Amino acid sequence: LLFPVSNLCGKCNPKDTDLLQPSLNFLYCSLHQTTPCSQQRAVVVLLSNVSLLELLQKVLECTWLRSPPSEPACLSSEDALLCSGWLLVASLLLYQHRYNAEVHQTLSLDLTEVLNAVIFRKKKPILLLVSIMQFLRAVLRQNFSSLLVTVGQNTAQGATQPQPSSLQDAALHPLATQQVFSLVVSLQNLLVHVQLQKDFLLSPAVVACLETLVEYLYVKSQDVALHVASQPWHRFLLFTLLSGGQKSFLQPEVLRLITLFLRYQSSNIISQKEIRQILQEASEANLAELPEATSHALHLFLCQV
């Protein structure tokens, strides 16, 4: 089925939402819900379809070409197609790298546009933000060096590449230092939004994106990574997350944030008192009844301690 469905997608344009959206979802599920052997074959089939990849390029670019919806919580058919496109490309990025699959068509995206889609949300639906952050995590984990997707500043045809304005920008290339700080602030604000609006689909994606960003920064410039991880606003953010109905430290997102700050030695964010409180709560909890996400986050925290 991958052959006819992917060929069908390649014959469409981004306006064919009723046909494309379920088709891209089928391709996405085919990648994720199969055996490793079949997964590798599926990746090869999809990456060899030039028309499909050209279609995905057009779909992703629609993210910043179309007007924002009047209702932020409303997921229109166009937004649903964008979600499917971003998630599929993020998955292809991951599996192309894993299996070292041959790439027949390279996608090209403007990094500024991708970052601005998160930084300046403009009433984007939550699911679309989650999908874009999945893609952003994928390119960060590959240090922007994927064979499938070229992500850089001003990637439009004929545009000249801007030169890094400082040694720090050069170290973080293709990211600029100001973009890093803007993205961190936006992720912090999104977590506060999660707490106020109870958008719990968003919180794991935001924390995961922040984790991947700091890991990328640490490889490129330890000074910038440690500076980002020790921002005093993070402490206020933690107390905001703990001020909701569930005040326990044993929330997966809270545990993952604390683990992140411990990893990069942000002693001004996490004190010994909080560490003892988490250990106390864990010792009193029925570990067998903890949700899987909480158990995993607690395991990572204990290993870090």
What does this protein structure show overall?
With 305 residues, the protein is mainly alpha-helical. 66% of the residues lie in helices and 3% in strands. The chain is built from 15 helices and 2 strands. The protein has helices spanning 2-10, 17-32, 36-47, 50-65, 77-99, 111-119, 126-141, 167-172, 177-197, 202-220, 222-229, 233-241, 252-263, 272-284, 292-304; strands spanning 107-110, 149-152. Strands 1-2 form a two-stranded parallel sheet. It starts with a helix and ends with a helix.
Give the gist of this structure.
Helix content is 66%, strand content 3%.
Strand content: under 5%
Q: What is the number of helical segments per DSSP (H or I, 4+ residues)?
A: 15
Mean pLDDT: 89
**What is the overall shape?**
globular
Largest sheet: 2 strands, parallel
Structural class based on helices, strands and sheet pairing? mainly alpha
> Which regions are unreliable across 5 or more consecutive residues at pLDDT < 50?
157-161
Outline the secondary-structure elements:
Elements (H helix, E strand, L loop, with lengths): L1 H9 L6 H16 L3 H12 L2 H16 L11 H23 L7 E4 H9 L6 H16 L7 E4 L14 H6 L4 H21 L4 H19 L1 H8 L3 H9 L10 H12 L8 H13 L7 H13 L1
Parallel strand pairs: 1-2
Helix pairs in contact: 1-2, 1-4, 2-3, 2-5, 3-5, 4-5, 5-7, 6-7, 6-9, 7-10, 9-10, 9-12, 10-11, 10-13, 13-15
